[in-house]
Amino acid sequence: MKRIMKRVGVGLGVLVGLLLVALGAAYAASLSKEGRVYPARTDDFELPTAPEQLAEGERLYISRGCGDCHAEDGGGRTILDDAPGRISGPNLTRATASYVAADWSRSVRYGLRADGTALIFMPSHEYFAMPDHELAAIAAHVRALPVVDRTPPPNEIRLLGRVIDLAGGFDLFPAARIDHEGARPDVPEPAPTAEYGAFLAVMCTGCHGAQLSGGPIPGAPPELGNPRNLTMHETGLASWTGEDFRRAMREGITPDGRNLNPDQMPWRNSARMTDVELDAIWAYLQTVPHVTEGSR
Question: pTM score, two decimals?
Answer without folding.
Answer: 0.89
